[in-house]
Amino acid sequence: MATIDPKAPVMVTGATGYVAGWLVKTLLDRGHTVHAAVRDPGNAKKRAHLDAMAEAAPGEIRYFAADLLTEGAYAEAMKGCELVFHTASPFTSEVKDPQKELVEPAQLGTRNVLEEANRTESVRRVVVTSSCAAVYGDNIDMRETPNGIFDEAVWNTSSSLAHQPYSYSKTVAEQEAWKIAEAQGRWDLVVLNPALVMGPGTNPFGTSESFALLRQFGDGTFKIGAPAYGMGVVDVRDLAEAHYRAGFTPEANGRNIIVGHNTDIREMATLLRERFGDRYPLPKRSLPKWVVWLVGPMKNKLLTRKVVNRNIGLPWKGDNAKGVRELGLSYRPLDVTLVEMFEQMAETGGFDKAKA
Ligand code: NAP
Q: 78 near 51, Cβ under 8 Å?
């Protein structure tokens, strides 16, 4: 149990990211000093939205250069901090070498940040942004769960470098975090396991895979039909609140599944079609599993036949009760999240660029 002094600076790794953006805003709006660890603090364009937030808020932001793979890189940023949010980890499907591009930054990066916490006397709590991807690999895994639902007791045992490598990277990174946390006694570890994150970005030009997924609704990728791909979704603003509470609630502990809605691509498409169907090529029907099996791998290299077999047509259910009970979390309606993100992408030309 850790009580954090609100006057001490709070460190956020990967502060330029989509998820971190709203967390940094929440911290600044509530008057905290944020030590923003970013790869390239000299890149004014990548920081512009953070600078604008800080300008308008009572809190203060200070930038520190740090790369996940450089040992000791987080020392300066962590100095004097009691609370560390570790959000940085690559979330992309555009990888050639999953070991180098996903697993190393996720796992070695987590080791690097948490070992720095071991060396930094002021640190009392580390909140790691893991993922539901560390809970499950494929929807079919739900059949093997003790309670027929993905909850905090479940670990992903089905992903590997060859199959669902991003999920594998998040699993080994979270395991690394627990190993380091359990070997010491000064700081406690709180892990968040968010489902797919959606909702408008503080930077509308984000590169997170969340943007890539939403883009496919507007750019015609799903025009012929939406696959019955079950998943959980959480609003990025609700996730920021979950981070904040995980940091500042003394009793926060363990893993916490953060999901607002158990849904699937078809339901998401239907909600968006009600609002934007007259202007965008949103799918009108569900795509049969055999069609996804046949054409999926040609359209999207992540949609391998194995992924199709183990996910399409299978429900996804995540249990958010612990976060609701212990952190007092509540979740926005799914249509609000999707519509506001779609509107932002439409206004900023996100769909045009995809077509170009
Ligand atoms: P994002 O926008 O791509 O953010 C990733 C962040 O990690 C960026 O700030 C990026 O820095 C940083 N990063 C990547 N490689 C790095 C390296 N080698 N050294 C230092 N920083 C590095 O993705 P996101 O969606 O916000 O994801 C943030 C976290 O949430 C990740 O841990 C992800 O696994 C987790 N998560 C995301 C979702 C989702 O649906 N989006 C769901 C569950 C969990 P640059 O800006 O310099 O590239």
A: no
